[in-house]
Amino acid sequence: MNKATTTNTQKLVLLALLTAIVVVLQILAMATRPLFPAFSITLVLVPIIIGAALIGTFAGGWLGLAFGAAVLISGDAAVFLGINPVGTVIVVLLKGALAGLAAGAVYKLFSKKNKTVAAAVAAVICPVVNTGIFILGTYIFFLPTINEWAAAAGYENATTYIIFGMVLVNFIVELVINIILCPVIVRLVHYGQARRAA
To answer: Is 0.90 topped by the overall pTM?
Structure first.
């Protein structure tokens, strides 16, 4: 077996492992939701960013797509599925896939200069894209319902409700977790790979 075949096999194994981790983390997030009903915080973006950094941009997209599929299967999007099933599937799959692709593209761009900085930038971009697509999707597919929810919750308008009632706390916590964990994990993996190659 030549070196290229070995490397490709290792990447496929790592991708399969990270895909399984994404699914398990999403199921755990859903299972723990009753403990934290006000929040929808997930660690799933961490393996997406790591996969995008270690394997490549398209691996990040695949892991993001797996995240979206796990969200749909786990029932985490059940409320939105009841309102607009097609819109929900589009938004959930698109936000995950684009977040992973963006993380991979940014990592590739910055990694030529510094892999740790590249991982940190990818750790920021991934939740920004994920949350940004979610917000855009709520405007496109769910605005009448969001307006009703906003009024019932005492918010002035849908935008205020989406930002302060739905995404802000989750986004900040996910962003901080990603910024702390991803560069460290990517750096450790690269260090291990360099030691093994030496």
So the answer is: no
